[in-house]
Design goal:
single chain; alpha+beta; 6-stranded mixed β-sheet; 34% helix
Length: 158
């Protein structure tokens, strides 16, 4: 699966579970020589709350190198979280194919984003063995992600 396919699953999940999701198109040049950086991959609305979502996808369990997460992406997620002041959700998600129909989406939301930023700054990758021990994930089933289970995970953070 490609990262764009993963983001399509995220968008579809919002749209089919009573919310609204929109995949922000990748960088485009509307004026020759001008490129803007997207703040994150997907935004959505679910149960009256705004969601900001940045996704990464890996086709197998391996170390996640934080060089794949751009500084502006984590900064924009944190800014969104701070501006929403509890009225929204900011998510950093790493999807991984564990094989045999076991596709997991690891979720770091809201206040956990500061931990992600610290790890990125310290160049402390998430090791493959860590993914086997982490419990902050939901599974993709029938090409959807259960939004309500993500809310449960985020509420456990507090």
């Amino acid at each position: 699966m490609l990262e764009s396919d993963f983001n399509s699953i995220v968008t579809k999940s919002f749209n089919s579970q009573g919310g609204y999701g929109f995949k922000i198109p990748d960088e485009r040049s509307t004026i020759t020589g001008f490129h803007s950086k997207n703040p994150y991959d997907v935004y959505g609305l679910y149960k009256g709350k705004f969601w900001a979502w940045e996704s990464k996808w890996m086709n197998k369990v391996q170390s996640f190198n934080f060089n794949r997460l751009e500084e502006h992406q984590i900064d924009n997620l944190i800014k969104s979280y701070e501006i929403m002041n509890g009225n929204g959700v900011s998510i950093f998600a790493i999807g991984i194919d564990f094989g045999r129909n076991d596709k997991r989406v690891f979720i770091w939301g809201n206040s956990d984003l500061y931990i992600i930023k610290e790890r990125k700054n310290a160049k402390k990758n998430i090791l493959a063995k860590e993914f086997n021990e982490l419990t902050n994930f939901v599974r993709i089933t029938k090409k959807e992600i259960p939004i309500e289970k993500i809310i449960e995970l985020i509420n456990k953070e507090k």
